[in-house]
Write a structure and sequence with these properties.
Blueprint lengths: L1 H38 L9 H8 L6 H11 L2
Length: 75
Amino acid sequence: MFKVSIAIVACVVGFSSAAFAQSQRGAMREACKADFKKFCSGVSPGGGRIVECLNKQHDSLSEACKTALDARSKQ
């Protein structure tokens, strides 16, 4: 019974972490939408290429996008 309880707790924590990460990505996507279109529209998604492109343009980004990128990098 103890092993089952630990397994349930591990699943709940895992799903909570995944949901939190997904909400973080959604917030960054919304905050950086215009900056992405302006600076990185030719970049193919995947492998962190979009975040890398946005980071290269960091000084030119909107404040909301800078904040979102900075929060992501602190994780």
